[in-house]
Amino acid sequence: MSDLYEFPADLPDQGDDGRATLKWAGTIVALATLGLALFNPTAISFWVDDLPPGPTNIRLAAIGEGWAETADRIGLGMGHARLHAAWKAAERTDWKGRQPVEMAATDQPATP
Fold this sequence. Notes:
The chain has 112 residues and is mainly α. It has a domain at 41-89. Helix content is 58%, strand content 0%. The protein is extended, with a radius of gyration of 25 Å. The chain starts with 18 loop residues before the first helix and ends in a 20-residue tail after the last helix.
């Protein structure tokens, strides 16, 4: 009589030492970093600006700002810019029956 709860796949007897998992995770991190660097370089500039001042960080800030300007010039940030513009337009939209949003810092109603 067979065991009804038998695992459907044969697993190797020796466990994985984690190299394949580490390779997969490293690849994902590298691809995410590359995507961020290519399509949202402004985020990198803002991140570097938040770091404590120092010779390395000053150089990184100059490189980041240069890349952000180059990426904007060749149009790599257009997707982010369009999404941001659409979001801001949706925020300003005055839907029927909606009350004005009170701003926390000024306690003044938001103006569309």
